[in-house]
Amino acid sequence: MFSRAIGFAPSGDYWLLAHEPWRQLECAEMVNAIATEQALQGFVLLRKHLQAASLNNIMDIVFGKRYDLTEYDNEAKELHEIVREGFELLGAFNWSDHLPWLKYFFDPFRIQERCAVLVPRVKKLIKQIIMENQNNNSFKVKRSLNEDDMVAVLWEMIFRGTDTTALLIEWVMAELVLNPQVQTKIKTELDTLIGNKGVTDADIPKLPYLNAVVKETLRLHPPGPLLSWARLSTADVHLSNGMLIPANTTAMPERFLPSAGGVNVDVRGNDLRLAPFGAGIRVCPGKNLGLATVSLWVAKLVHHFEWVQNRAQPVDLSEVLKLSSEMKKPSLCCGHSKG
Ligand code: HEM
């Protein structure tokens, strides 16, 4: 079983190839659902499509299980809800993390109560899926972890891997809507290098501008902003424009500048100038999956549609900090099919 879980599978070509078909399939279904919604109502609420496809992608990889995105059954609904609740709870401010004795009488966000409700829901659903798989004989369970440990590890893969990916793509698409010249440049790169065939993982390294856009989005809207220590200047820094960033200042970027450099930075924890997946022994184990999914799906979304603002509700880049930094108002865009 663990050879199938992302965090335990070695990175590299095997890993990418083994999982590409799922990501292609999820993305194709997402593109169809987006086209249908656009045709029906003239705009698209991107986040829900990205979250649904991302959840299916992770469930495929972890359990070999997928859900029909058009007819969410009860299990899919339950899974979707508990993933969201887990993500919210992990990102919520918990007073008793700092003052443990407070938990008995001050818990304004009802963290204890919500955790107590969530844990049995997670255990029930994940155990049920593990049982189904055992009955199907489709995967062998290693007994070195007990059942509760397995539930915890598999659950973490699911809820950590779903929204980080979906929310990052939402940020990329919001920046592309606000910066049409950047979107055009990606489109030109795709038309020149890919033409009319479908984009695959193998094409992604040949698309430097697309990669630069993803990295720039990770710089400007890192899903893990709690790693903001990485933005702390350790000494006075004199910029070429004469400005001084004094030591011990947390410097957050403001402008989206995909061409400004960073293209050659390895964002997977090997270069601390930009480490949106963390670094070292606790680096994100899903970093390759996350990057591969985001790059492939953004390429496909731009290849299939031209993205513009929905005039009734322009894109708003305000952030809200949960486990991940997400857009306060989910972005409503219009994805006009390129036919
Ligand atoms: C674009 C997508 C993603 C981003 C930006 C991201 C970012 C991060 C960050 C910043 C951390 C904390 C690292 C640290 O503490 O130094 C982390 C940890 C983690 N991530 Fe991701 N992640 C992404 C996708 C995924 C995916 C797809 C999975 C699983 C399939 C995943 C699973 C995990 C797990 C299990 C941890 C905890 C690692 C540990 O504490 O040992 N992540 N991620």
TrEMBL record:
Keywords: Heme, Iron, Metal-binding, Monooxygenase, Oxidoreductase
Highest taxon, organism lineage: Eukaryota
Cofactor names: heme
Membrane topology: Single-pass membrane protein
Molecular-function GO term, any one: monooxygenase activity
A cellular-component GO term for this protein: membrane
InterPro entries: Cyt_P450, Cyt_P450_CS, Cyt_P450_E_grp-I, Cyt_P450_sf, Cytochrome_P450_78A
Subcellular location: Membrane
Pfam families the record matches: p450
Binding site for heme: 284
Gene3D superfamilies: Cytochrome P450 (1.10.630.10)
Stated family: Belongs to the cytochrome P450 family.
The protein, known as: Cytochrome
Species, as recorded: Forsythia ovata
